[in-house]
Specification:
About 45% of the residues are buried. Helices cover about 75% and strands about 0% of the residues. With about 325 residues, the chain is mainly alpha-helical. It has a single domain, classed as MetI-like (MetI-like fold, Orthogonal Bundle), CATH 1.10.3720. The protein has 14 helices and no strands.
């Protein structure tokens, strides 16, 4: 990346980091400002609609997700709104019942990845020295593996269990989050309030908890939104190829794989779960962009996403 690009990335990430402080009124104020924009309001509405669909769906499904109710791969009818899947099960009922598990796994994986990445990034950025070098070299090793390749490697060796999918996806997020939080921590660590706390002999863990992390909230919220989007698509992809939740469990990724053989006969078995995943990811991206714009006070979230990531990637010594 050029020097101009590095400088632009530094300004973007630094602005977002400083926006996490109390002078911007906290997360609630930033969220309210994001919701005043069209993309923020639309994005959150899409996310909440899909989440509500996934949570309430199992309780209002007209049939059991495993019940055979119609002709296999038949089209929509009065008793099967989206037709039947490859076994004759109701596509609409399976769609209603198949989102909760995917969302739960994605949320758990995101929390794991962001939590571990934040711990590594904040420690490296505050302690620096040899500890910083060792941690960042380990992060470099993690970045050498594409996320999908790492997740596939782990679940194929240790088994395709749901909790292992969560660990695999969460660990695959950790290096990227560590890079971003380290770069943000370096910016916060230069502030006067951190220097004063260090000079007064405040313990390092208290500085991290009470001084560093509160000023990284905006960065972490953006990372949570981005990583949740990646988690959803990655877990859906893993279930599509047979890892994680397996048939006959209703799951949007499993539905796509099961019904692709009958795409020309009843496309709703494939298109409906794809549409739900797409709506969720689009909504999450829209709201995350709006939140980032509100946090830095300018309407340039797209620039932030493009500039901050490569800057964070160069921040390691």
């Amino acid at each position: 990346m050029t020097g101009a690009g590095s400088a632009a990335g530094a300004r973007a990430l630094g602005a977002l980091t400083r926006a996490g402080g109390a002078d911007r009124g906290g997360i609630a104020a930033i969220t309210r400002q994001a919701l005043r924009t069209k993309r923020g309001a639309i994005g959150l509405a899409l996310v909440l609609a899909v989440v509500l669909f996934a949570v309430v769906g199992p309780f209002v499904a007209p049939y059991s997700p495993d019940a055979l109710v119609t002709v296999p791969l038949s089209g929509p009818s009065g008793h099967a709104w989206l037709g039947g899947d490859f076994l004759g099960r109701d596509v609409w009922s399976r769609l209603l019942a198949g989102g909760g598990a995917l969302l739960l796994l994605a949320v758990l994986a995101t929390l794991l990845g962001v939590g571990a990445g934040t711990a590594i990034g904040v420690t490296a950025g505050l302690v620096q020295g040899k500890t910083d070098s060792v941690l960042m070299r380990l992060v470099d090793v993690g970045l050498a593996f594409p996320q999908i390749v790492f997740a596939l490697l782990l679940v194929s060796v240790a088994g395709a269990r749901p909790w292992l999918v969560v660990v695999a996806v969460g660990v695959s997020h950790t290096p990227q989050v560590a890079r971003v939080t380290r770069a943000a921590t370096l910016d916060v660590a230069e502030q006067d309030f951190v220097k004063v706390a260090e000079s007064n002999g405040v313990r390092r863990w208290r500085i991290i908890v009470f001084e560093i992390v509160p000023n990284l909230v905006s960065v972490l919220m953006v990372e949570l939104g981005l990583r949740l989007t990646f988690s959803i698509t990655l877990i859906a992809g893993l279930t599509f190829i047979g890892f994680g939740l397996r048939p006959p469990a209703p799951n949007w990724g499993v539905m796509i794989n099961e019904n692709r053989i009958g795409l020309t006969l009843n496309p709703w078995g494939v298109l409906a779960p794809i549409a739900m995943i797409a709506i969720l990811t689009i909504g999450m991206n829209l709201f995350t962009d709006a939140f980032a714009s509100a946090a830095i006070g300018v309407d340039r979230a797209g620039d932030l996403m493009l500039e901050a990531a490569p800057f964070a990637a160069e921040a390691a010594p």
